[in-house]
Amino acid sequence: MxxxxxxxSDIHFGAEDxxxxxxxxQYLGATPFDLLLVTGDITQLGxxxxxKSAKDWLASLPGPRIATPGNHDTPWFGLIERVFAPFQxxxxxxxxxxxxxxxxxxxxxxxxSARGWQVRLNWSKGEVNRLQTRRxxxxxxxxxxxxxxxxxxxxxxxxxxxxxxxxxxxxxRRAARKFAEAGFDxxxxxxxxxxxxxxxxxxxxLSYAVGASTLSLRERGAPPGFNVIExxxxxxxxxAMAWNGGNLETDQVWRVPLRPRPAQRSIRDxxx
Length: 272
What we know:
Elements: E1 3-8, H1 18-30, E2 35-39, H2 48-59, E3 65-68, H3 79-84, H4 88-93, E4 99-103, E5 106-110, H5 130-139, E6 148-152, H6 172-181, E7 186-189, E8 196-199, E9 208-211, E10 225-232, E11 235-243, E12 248-257, H7 267-270
Parallel strand pairs: 1-2, 2-3, 5-6, 6-7, 7-9
Antiparallel strand pairs: 1-10, 4-5, 8-9, 10-11, 11-12
């Protein structure tokens, strides 16, 4: 069986699409998967009540989960807290801002590209510094060629063509190059509210930027939805599921090659 990941992003509790969120929970309850990736902007304004709603909803979902914050997961109206403890609320409700998941055939590093503030006009844009890049690479297992290596953060590290907004991640292009050269297969992100799969223009060209839509009312040219990511040997499939107002349906599909590797074993198989 292929390795199956579900990517949720930009739920924006406080501005969520309630019907889409409910349909997504039902889908996850009925669909086997190996890991849930949540790539930031879980809340709209970083309010305590929004984090409680997010915490309760995520706790109701099956399976293992790894998450990273987005720029909306800082307290937007608490300037002092946003400067000195921007992710304190996130950590209490959701978990650490950077973490690792490693299990049969899969290694994931969640990196925090969001900042509470920055010395630039639009502080909501992302940043990945050299220390974060080195730490992510250092924590990736290097002795298991059959492992799928995934880096996840909120902001796309390079600009994605024809997308509705920019990321302008400080250090992003350098980090993307380092991750590709280190053999990461996927860099999974949110922020744009539109799904995409785009080959990183570094290394052997077999590292991919993968982005998901939103589950909020803040649409940017794509319906609310999420990604179903499947890795089957040296093939990657990304299915963007979309909420059409009444049902979840397949919206877009990408199928691309990955680096050759030994046959993988699903986490579900390993736990059987």
